[in-house]
Amino acid sequence: MSFILNIETATKNCSVSIAKNGETILCKEIAEEGYSHAEKLHVFIEEVIAESGVSVQDLKAVAVSQGPGSYTGLRIGVSAAKGLCFALNIPLIAVDTLQTLASQVSISEGKIVPMLDARRMEVYSAVFNAKIEIERPIQAEIINEDSFAEYTDTIYFVGDCADKCKAVLTKENFIFLEEIKYPSAREMSKISYDKYQISDTVDVAYFEPYYLKDFMMTLPSKK
Prior knowledge:
The protein is an alpha/beta fold and 223 residues long. It has helices at 37-52, 71-88, 97-102, 162-165, 185-197; strands at 3-8, 13-20, 23-31, 59-65, 92-95, 111-117, 122-129, 134-142, 155-159, 174-176.
C-alpha cells in the first residue's frame, strides 16, 4: 500500500492530508485572512501522521502544491516538503494548484474554470472539462467582460475571485460556485497517487514552485 503526505499552501488555506492508495485518510486545514502557514503547517503535518497511525517511515512520497499562488505560501510548503523528502529519501511530487481546486467540482458536462486572485482584476486561471482534464493551460490574465466569451458550454467558476469577477462575467452560461474558494490537500490525494504510480516526480534539489506572474503593464496616458 502507498501512503502519501499532501501539502497545500498556495492560498490562504493551510492544508495537509495523508492518503492511502489515493484515498484521503485524514486532512487538517485552516483558512485565515492572515496567512498562518509558518505557524500551522508543521503542526498539521505532525497531527495527521500521529492521528492517522501512519509512521513517517511508511510514507512513499510527499506531494506539494506547485502553484500558482502566494509566493510566501508556496515557499513554505515546498521547503517543508523538500525537508521531509531529503530526510526520508523518498520522492517529491508536484501537483498543480488549479487542478486541485477544479477537482472539488463534480459535473457531468460543461467546463470548470478555477481562478485565484492576483490583485486588482488579475487572476491565475485555467480551463478543465468535466473529467478534470485540462483544456486551456494555466495563465495569468486580466478579467474583463470578454473573458471566456469563446465558450458556449456552461462554465463553473471556482476560487477566491467571485467577489470581484461576478460583476464582470455576467453571461448566462457562467455560474459561480462561491462555496468552493480554496484548494485543499484533500483533493490532492488522488492526483498525487496517480502521479506516483507512473513515477511522475520532480528533482528534490532543484524543484521550484510555479510563480506565474506575467500580466500586461499599462502605462499612464500622457496629458
